[in-house]
Predict the 3D structure of the following.
Amino acid sequence: MQKEKQVIVDGLTFVPYLTREQIAEQVERVATEIAKDYEGKAPIFLCVLTGAFVFASDLMRATGLNDSKISFIRYKSYEGTSSTGTVKQIIGLTDDIEGRDVIIIEDIVDTGLTACRMIEDLKKKNPSSVKFATLLYKPVSSQTGFTPDYVAFTIPPKFIIGYGLDLDGKARNMPDIYVIKED
Ligand code: IMP
Ligand code: MG
């Protein structure tokens, strides 16, 4: 790996992992799957703040589902580079989702705790269906057995930043994805 391509955030070194071109290609693939599954329907995309805002923006536009809507919820479970094991809801859902097809858009599924908690909360509001789209999925660290419906990339359990994903709020602006350097 070229040294100059490394980035340092909060004293931790990261190396390139997925390029913006690779990301765009997989976002397009997932969007095509969603467009096919929801043809003639008007789903509500539910973007999980903060990390998923970049992916949600690209994914929603790439589906071409012009009757769809977007809404936002916020949960927090991570501190630094690991899960705290506790999922806190920071911003709740304001829109009525009763009888609607909901597609949750998440940046990454790690332990699966956030995903399970969100789905449990949403099902109380009687949507007609709930599906889950994630940019990144770390199946090895899943503690819950949760499996997302749409996955752009399946990755090993390593800490990732960029394209919306952060280290304590930083690095969300980076157009490419970086992985923490181990050695
Ligand atoms: P889970 O509840 O453990 O599945 O974690 C989900 C949340 O933790 C995600 O929505 C992210 O906000 C955060 N997270 C998990 N892994 C990473 C990572 O590698 N980089 C940045 N944030 C992460
Ligand atoms: Mg998140």
User: Anything to note?
Assistant: Strands lie at 7-9, 12-18, 44-49, 69-79, 82-91, 101-109, 129-137, 150-154, 160-161, 177-180. The first helix runs from residue 20 to 37. Residues 48, 51, 107 surround magnesium ion (ligand 2) (CB under 6 Å). Residues 44 and 69 are 5 Å apart (CA to CA).
